[in-house]
Amino acid sequence: MVQGDKPWVVQQRRPTLFALAAKRLPAGEVRSRAVPAMLELVHMQATHELLTAKSLLDRFEATGLNDATTLRQAMEKAVGELHVMGNVQGVVHGSAVVGEFAAGYVLADEAALSAYLLQPAELEIVQTAYRDVMHAQARELMDRNDWENALLLWQHLHQRKLVSQQLYLDAARCFKELKQTADTVRVLREALAAFGDSGSPEFLEQAGDLAFDIQTDEAQSLAETAYRKASDALKETISGVAER
After folding, report:
1. Does any domain span residue 40?
2. 152-197 pLDDT, tens per residue?
């Protein structure tokens, strides 16, 4: 079961997940020095595979994270923050040199692992990773001037309340490129309502710039508000630095 370098995962008849990863060790004098790093690597690879098992990912569908590709990438991104080892009862793991290979394994009760991952703090980690992965996908579409499909991803995240300052700005840019002025103003208004008091000066300035380019009274008023808030945020930043 240790042929090749690719990790894999097996779901047994019991509600148990088992993941194994193996990687061939280098030959020669470098082998002894490489062993600790290789054992850590295969241990992490096995953990990655365990957390991306389909039966486990399916548990997140009820929370709205139902884009399978994005969720898998999000779990891979978040695995280092989830701290499964030591926090989930019944998880057994280890790594060892087996012949010419470094091998690592993780064995976990599926129900216990699912319950841990769906706790509010851990779920928030996965949700944030899901948002960031899908936002990157939207950015790629924007780079190709595919504004409509980028907005579909934005709407998917917005419906799940997985938003950020930059997501709002990118959504406004998409609507602006599509010449949907009313929607551009609506998104900017919502962005300022959500992040006007906590947003970075850069976010507030960019929101103001986007609104300023729209020649309507409402947009100009939004721009004025955004610039004023950006100025206030910069003053707080400067005074905070001076106090140190």
Report:
1. yes
2. 999 999 999 999 999 999 999 999 999 999 999 999 999 999 999 9
Task: Give the residues across from 20 on adjacent strands.
Answer: 8, 105
Residues 6+ apart with CB under 8 A from 203: 165, 166, 169, 195
Of 77, 99, 125, the residue that ends a domain is 125
CB within 8 Å of 4: residues ≥ 6 apart: 22
For residue 145, being part of any structural domain is answered with no
Round to whole Å and give the CA distance between 90 and 163.
35
Q: Is 97 helix (H, G, I), strand (E, B) or coil?
A: strand
Domain of 43?
8-125
Geometric angle at alpha carbon 53, from 163 and 137, rounded to 5° = 35
Domain identity same for 121 and 170: no
Q: 132 is written with which tokens?
A: 């960031």
Burial tier of 4 (Cβ tally within 10 Å: 0-12, 13-18, 19+): exposed
Q: What is the pTM of this model?
A: 0.84
Q: Is residue 94 domain-shared with residue 188, that is, in the same domain?
A: no
